[in-house]
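Hi R.,

Quick one: here's the Proline reductase-associated electron transfer protein PrdC sequence you asked about.
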Amino acid sequence: MENVQILLRQHVGAPCAAIVKAGDEVKKGTKIATPTGLGANIFSSVYGVVEEVLEDRIVIRPDEEQKDEFVPIEVEDENDKLALVKEAGIVGMGGAGFPTGIKLGINLAETEMAELDAEINPELPADFKLEHSYILINAAECEPGLEHNIRQIEEQSDKVVRGVKYCMEITHADKAIFAIKKKNNKAIEILRKAIANEAEISIHLLPDIYPMGEERAVVRECLGVNLTTMQLPSAARSVVVNLETAAKIAEAIDEKKPCITKNLTVRGKINGGNQAHVFMDVPVGVSVGELIERAGGIDGVYGEIIMGGAFTGKATELDAPITKTTGGILVTIEFPDLHGANVGLLVCACGGSEERMREIAQKMNGKVVSVCRCKQAIENKPGAPLKCLRPGNCPGQVKNNMQFKKDKCEYIIIGNCSDCSNTVMASGPKMGLKVFHQTDHVMRTVGHGLYRTLRVSKQVDQLPNGK
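And here's the predicted structure, written out as tokens:
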């Protein structure tokens, strides 16, 4: 194993501060960094020696032999489940990385439902209230091509359910709902059996469209409530927990295990085929290149390597380390060459940032002459990431397409959700605009349908009797 690089910022909030120095021996589970503000503890994922402590990372030289044992976490009261979650350094494993101990520090039984915005909830009566409080488990595996969340259900459903029950206990929620895409038949059947005797836990089936895993989309699909871009799920008496995060919670409480590993999918232009290579319990800090080699190595010339998903991931390098939030490593085919043609960018809250889309346009040899935003993309404060008013449920984009045409664009690159891409296609091609989606090079690599015209119904019924 090559050197492990553990970044000091793997979560929402401020970077952690190292509490080790060069030359220190560490074990799997040794605490090596602590928060300086909002954040989560960071632990060594291997047995070894600290080589360097840099401004943004701790570099560890692993021992040749690695033991399975780890240093257990310790808290003053071993029965304090929330304290165990906090000490274990668990964050949202689905990508955002919000510290889970902070998220679960709420008493949902005493939480009042916030006033709903009538404009985005026109179908609900003004006096609508939720009778129950909820843990909503995000099992959507939102980014196309990734499969590690579904694999965890298939192989570790008991652990996941234990984690969900702990979440319910900690937050005093009286119900839990698994939000999972209807297409995952095997996982759904396994999950159904795992909760057969859990009267307060149910399953809600989602359509196979992006972004069903966005936090507010999970609330909307499961509870029928549209939250504003400023509201948290607590406004709907709920907490949304990623599936893998729930499993980490079970590990922290049952095994006193710190958060030192990550499940992820490696996929794309890989020797042996483009199928998903799922790796469970990978030590945090292992390099992208090492995981690609474990999957078979890169097959010839490629376009780029993405860390994360096709929509929200970023281009990365072989020596970059994985973190607690890394869900995917995608090796893509080469980009098409637009030969300097004029390009318009349609930036969406559900896809890449303007910076990421400009990077893609540059790699396609296109000249960006126009930039528009999806009409539902809201900037809550200057410089903050965009938020969609109704994730996955978008109106037309005719006005933006007309602007692109006015600005003499030949091509447009879009980063929109399934529904929004569909509305772009309703008018863009008729205006002579040639459309690329920012995920096209990934979708073509993994054999997934391109995001253009929506062919999947957005409505999916719940399983009979909530199960």
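Residues 148-171 form the longest helix (24 residues).

Cheers,
M.
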